[in-house]
């Protein structure tokens, strides 16, 4: 029997569909295309002052924790890999940004409910450095549907946030 191509995401197409969404919504694009900020490597500058540093996936460990001699295995049991993260120097706050794509019901529905646990893990991981942690989702349009009302309320109730079209600079403390 011929296989029907999955065009809605999830299942075998999770990487193909989700990865495209992640690659087309990189935080660094915000700064590369900005008239206010300059991006040099992973460092964000405003008026020649370094205001933030970007991290993705393993770079969070290699470029932030390892140079400060923090061994994550002594603090948390499993490495967490953020889609995007930005350390805002003025507030010493690390914003973890997870991107979730969906175009039909599927496993991402339940992943949204893990934000409380992940925020607590990141908070535990960065507390030895005195770095505060904020956790948010950057969601595809699919999650604007009414059936996600409860999970979006939960996300905010546990101190996390979600965004659709952009992540506001005032949320990041970079306005």
Describe the protein.
It is a single chain. The chain is 30% helix and 22% strand. It has 175 residues and is an alpha/beta fold. It has one domain (11-172). Strands 1-2-3-4-5-6-7 form a 7-stranded mixed beta sheet. The chain is globular, with a radius of gyration of 17 Å.
**What is the distance, rounded to the nearest whole angstrom, between the alpha carbons of the first and last residues?**
56 Å
The strand count comes to: 7
Number of helices: 7
What about the largest sheet?
7 strands, mixed
Assembly classification: single chain
Beta fraction:
15-25%
**Low-pLDDT sequence parts:** 1-23
Mean pLDDT: 85
Helix/strand order, N-terminal first: HHEEEHEEHHEHEH
Q: Compute the CA-based radius of gyration.
A: 17 Å
Query: How does the helix and strand content classify structurally?
Result: alpha/beta
Range of helix content:
25-40%
Whole-number count of domains: 1
**Overall geometry:** globular
What's the arrangement of strands in the largest beta sheet?
1-2-3-4-5-6-7
């Amino acid at each position: 029997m011929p296989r029907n191509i999955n065009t809605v995401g999830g299942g075998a197409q999770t990487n193909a569909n989700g990865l495209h969404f992640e690659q087309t919504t990189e935080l660094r694009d915000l700064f590369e295309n900005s008239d206010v900020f300059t991006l040099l490597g992973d460092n964000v500058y405003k008026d020649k002052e370094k205001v933030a540093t970007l991290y993705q996936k393993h770079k969070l460990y290699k470029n932030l924790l390892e140079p400060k001699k923090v061994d994550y295995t002594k603090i948390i049991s499993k490495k967490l890999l953020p889609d995007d993260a930005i350390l805002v120097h003025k507030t010493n706050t690390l914003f973890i940004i997870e991107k979730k794509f969906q175009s039909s019901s599927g496993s991402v529905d339940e992943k949204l409910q893990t934000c409380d646990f992940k925020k607590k893990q990141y908070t535990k991981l960065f507390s030895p450095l005195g770095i505060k942690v904020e956790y948010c989702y950057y969601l595809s349009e699919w999650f604007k549907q009414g059936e996600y009302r409860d999970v979006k309320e939960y996300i905010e109730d546990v101190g996390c946030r979600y965004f659709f079209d952009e992540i506001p600079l005032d949320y990041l403390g970079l306005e």
